[in-house]
Amino acid sequence: MRTIGHREPATGEQPEHAPTGRRRALWQLRPTRVLGAPLHARLTAVPLVLVPTALAMDVLRLATGDPAWTGHAWAALLFALLAGVLSVCPGFVDLVMIGIRGDAGGPALLHAAGGFLIPLVVTADWGLHASEQLWLPLLASVVATAASWAQAWLGRQVRGSGCELVA
Q1: 151 closest CA partner among 87, 76, 58, 59
Q2: Taking a C-beta distance cutoff of 8 angstroms, is the pair 84, 118 a contact?
Q3: Which residues pair with 101 in a beta bridge?
Q4: Average pLDDT, rounded, for the chain
Q5: Residues 142, 74, 121, 127, CA torsion sign
Q6: For the chain, how long is the longest CA-to-CA vector?
Q7: Do residues 98 and 167 touch, judged by C-beta distance below 8 A?
Q8: Is the pLDDT of residue 145 over 80?
Q9: What would the pLDDT profile of 14-48 be if each residue is shown by its tens digit?
Q10: How far apart, in whole angstroms, are the C-alpha atoms of residue 119 and residue 133?
Q11: Residue 143's closest CA among 117, 167, 165?
């Protein structure tokens, strides 16, 4: 079992709250991983970089008047949206299969709800970039960036709360 915020048990050692008997295999569940790295955490890094990048491109579009920046922002939001949707899947699997108890229960559910709402916000931002307006896509990018960072902060609260990931 992996305990966030606590030390890992030594090999062969079980924590006092470890299930016994038939559920012992579930005790060893871990977050979805690829090549040893948690998949949800790795995939969320992409939109956390690309959404503010789209905001910067919107500011450059406003400052220079060059419409090419809108196309670049549109492409950045498209890739952010794809990575964001991909990151929701392992995050949801981790929440359902592993479960969370302790102080992180509320933030974990808020984080899960945000995981489904943030792609909608980014989709709206992406759609507004197809218009010829200048200020509306910029405002949408500010909202999408703030929402993405708030979602990331909430995810860190879940990981850093000392919660136990349990089967």
Answers
A1: 87
A2: yes
A3: 164
A4: 77
A5: positive
A6: 67
A7: yes
A8: yes
A9: 555 554 544 434 434 556 676 666 778 788 889 99
A10: 22
A11: 117
3-state secondary structure the chain: CCECCCCCCCCCCCCCCCCCHHHHHHHCCCCCEECCEEHHHHHHHHHHHHHHHHHHHHHHHHHHCCCHHHHHHHHHHHHHHHHHHHHHHHHHHHHHHHCEECCCHHHHHHHHHHHHHHHHHHHHHHHHCCCCCCHHHHHHHHHHHHHHHHHHHHHHHHHHCCCEECC
Q: Which residue in this structure is represented by tokens 């910029």?
A: 138
The CA distance from 87 to 118, in Å, is 11
